[in-house]
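ok so for the tutorial part 2 we go from a plain amino acid sequence to predicted structure tokens. step 1 is just haveing the sequence, like this:
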Amino acid sequence: MTLLVLPLQLISDGSVVYAEALWDHVTMDDQELGFKAGDVIEVVDATNKEWWWGRIMDSEGWFPASFVRLRVNQDEPMEEYLAHLEEAQAGEENRAGLGLLLGPGLPCKEQMRTNVINEIMSTERVYIKHLKDICEGYIKQCRKRTDMFTEEQLRTIFGNIEEIYRFQKKFLKGLEKKFNKEQPHLSEIGCCFLEHQTDFQIYSEYCNNHPNACIQLSKLVKVNKYVFFFEACRLLQKMIDISLDGFLLTPVQKICKYPLQLAELLKYTNPQHRDYKDVEAALNAMKNVARLINERKRRLENIDKIAQWQSSIEDWEGEDILSRSSDLIFSGELSKLSQPQAKSQQRMLFLFDHQMVYCKKDLLRRDMLYYKGRMDMDYMEVIDVEDGKEKDFNISVKNALKLRALAGEEIHLLCAKKPEQKQRWLRAFADERIQVQHDRETGFSLTEVQKKQAMLNACKSHPAGKPKAVTRPYYDFLLRQKHPSLPTALPQQQVFMLAEPKRKTSTFWHNIGRLTPFKK
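step 2 — the prediction. this is what the tokens look like for a chain of 520 residues:
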């Protein structure tokens, strides 16, 4: 917790007290004060130890005291002020003031670590209460009203919050065991985060579902009986005056706050402290959890685009692309030779996780693709081929690589126009295997509901019986993707060039244009 004595004392003396926001505060109520990390807030009332009343320009409202660090003025952070007090060879008055703030015999950095530890413990207990209130105050009551809610609706609104509640109770017990009540600065809590770093990944499902929860909830609260019901649940559980959507935002905020809290804890932990290495490792672990959640969110946002891409491909055969894949790794045009014909064909290749789809361009409508087949990348090995004579196909090749089945005689030879294109494809194939392995380790997969919904949305965009619009679906799809291996600084035109190699001008279209009414 931030120091309470100082703001009360200074405010009562008529001084202006400022606080610096450590974290973003997303407002849940019109009486709350929203701010971003780094904002400076004037503290008007600090009589309540949990919630303070503050002002930013013309806005006023309540905000959590644990979200801020006190500042003596707008330019000097609180810890610098305390350090000046500690170092100053001042008289008894300053010494007494310092003792009041820091307690007997505690150096400044250890007191700041105590504050952060206390804040982590305090916010964790408050969070558990929020989760309990949601599970027992809302979900339990909703399940009794089968006339108002289906299990599917409740799953959409509340996601896996009950699973999160069970985990967080176990996590808090671990923290309590490591918390040193007499000397909080000696607490060693870093190991608790490390022990449960995999368990925190359950937040991924909740965060990905949260937008759907908001949509479902907004539909229900348009009907008065649901508004009255939710308010009755809140009052019965004696919950604070925050709407249900505000409570449901809490887990999203919480998982984002852990790296910030751990960064603050590491800042005030001496390298010689027994907890230092664990806190440092815990910070990296929780940053990785946040990155994983963001990556899964991106993947789930992309499945609609992948389904729409598939619906734009003519003559599609076999299972849907989403049945096994959920991410486009790379794509481009290559010359493809396959045994036994060994005839070179220009193909547009789309490398997804687990499989690669290859298509043929329409001769006249170059933006239209025809499905020609796919390869199962789980059972293929990629071989770099040297320039010169290729023994399997008995031809001279340049900028080539080979895909060969691990079992059987299936072989495909792929040739690029330039050496850098070939190298880019080799990296892409390596990235695909890394992605698959990472998904296995983290347990990422699409649910059947997600797959069906994405394909259903794609079908709606192409109603049966109506011709598909002549668009550039796969180019648009490529440009919308965030390829992790492509430099994000590249302008779109350059990214487009990677997806669609430039062709030399041909007289073919000029000649055929004079003979037919078709246009390229």
